[in-house]
Amino acid sequence: MNINYIKEINNSRVYDVAKKTPITLLNKISSKYNNTVYLKREDLQPIFSFKCRGAYNKVSNLSSKERLNGIIAASAGNHAQGVALSASKLGIDALIVMPTTTPSIKIESVKKFGVSIKLFGDSFDEAYEHALEVSNKEARVFIHPFNDPLVIAGQGTVAKEIVEQSEDSTDIFFIPVGGGGLISGMSIYLKKHYPNCKIFGVESEDAPTLSMSLKHGEPTSLSQVGLFVDGCAVKRIGEETFKISQKYVDDVILVSIDETCAAIKDIYEDTRVMSEPAGALAVAGMKKYILNNNLENKKIIAINSGANLNFDRLRHVTERAEIGEGKELLLSVKIPEKSGSFRAFCEVIGRKSISEFNYRYSNENSANVFVGIKTDNIEKDTKNLFSDLNDKKYDYIDLTKNEVAKLHLRYMVGGKPSAVINEKLFRFEFPEKPGALLNFLNKMQKDWDITLFHYRNHGSAFGRVLVGIDIGTHNKDDLEEFLTDLDYKYTEETKNKGYHSFLK
Fold first, then answer.
1. Which domain holds residue 183?
2. Which residues of the chain are under the pLDDT cut of 70?
3. What's the pLDDT tens digit per position in 159-180?
4. Is residue 110 included in any domain, yes or no?
5. What is the pTM of this model?
6. Of the candidates 119, 142, 165, which is a domain's last residue?
7. What angle do CA 469, 333, 360 make, to 5 degrees?
8. What does the radius of gyration of the chain's CA atoms come to, in whole angstroms?
């Protein structure tokens, strides 16, 4: 395609719908990583994503005949909103094809513009192929989400604003990559004005479309892509976006889901904005690059591409963020099933902050405990803890990088005891401070046994804990004396129907 991108970017018609977004200094991240880090706030667009830029620039340049025929687009969400907004603004009939896996927040956000929506396929690529078929059948103009010069030029206005907003040059840029529209438009403009700058694309490990294509020297299709970073879940980069990226992008950084979740948390702590996974990719890649290259005293700009995050994904994000930041260690530890073994194990952990504890009595021999431990220095703390566990002859497994453990096992630790026990079940609120568990154990009768224990930190001032206690032959008065002396808020759940169904 023969096009003067600098001219097209400068003349791009985006500001009928888009707004110039600020560059925010990330004070906390800058201090932590010894660099001056800014965030380009595309999450502040009317559709909470940069996608309205490219979509409107394309749609606004259609001829009168093309407008009469109507338009069609395929998108996992943000491009769909951009096209819908553009169609609504210009009075054009629009049909949006979206994968069935699209988050509901993005579907509802498209509906509000009064356009037609069709859910089709499990991925962007399936929706894309179907949209092309409809386009040919109905003579609708297909609005490509990334592989179109006018779309690329519209996205390039992000870079134009950065140049206009910056008093001096920027050393390094980190830009998220899906189909490549944003990074190709931006990289052309940035290399023109800052020829010595470095531009890094950032992709999810399970959707490395640009990384793989650069290795092969041509656009390469992935067999499958992960859907967590849904805004960048593209199997094949565009021909045009690849050509530009190959020329102007210095390198590509791949990040994990855990690293992405940690970046969402980082952005929130500096801006109080909850970024979507695609929007946090750039910060995740930036952190990884800084740490791997001991980078200091550089001016860095990362692009927050969007903030269309389903609220119900927050639980997953928060649980994975601590691991992604290297602040949580997950272990499976086998302990002997005898009186005092639970306390002895907790004494090995000491005053380390526990993020999660799962245990259920099974038989008289041994038990596996699932435990999460908070840490500020995972390498040091791991070494020290493993040394202590080895000294005490504990059999343990490091599950910190085990996907099955992180996604499933932590919720499945349980079962029913094989022996008859005099078990009482309680819901406690533990004060969220080191030593709360040991205080609990030390105040128990020495011949009582913990038969069930579940705790997961939720960031509150107190921890929600479910505890089963085998009180043996002790009477109710002994139990009440213990509960009074403990002085933790509690509710007895011994008669709970769920408990009797699954745990009793």
1. 11-43+149-321
2. 1, 362-363, 408, 412-415, 418, 420, 457-461, 502
3. 999 999 998 999 999 999 999 9
4. yes
5. 0.80
6. 142
7. 25
8. 27
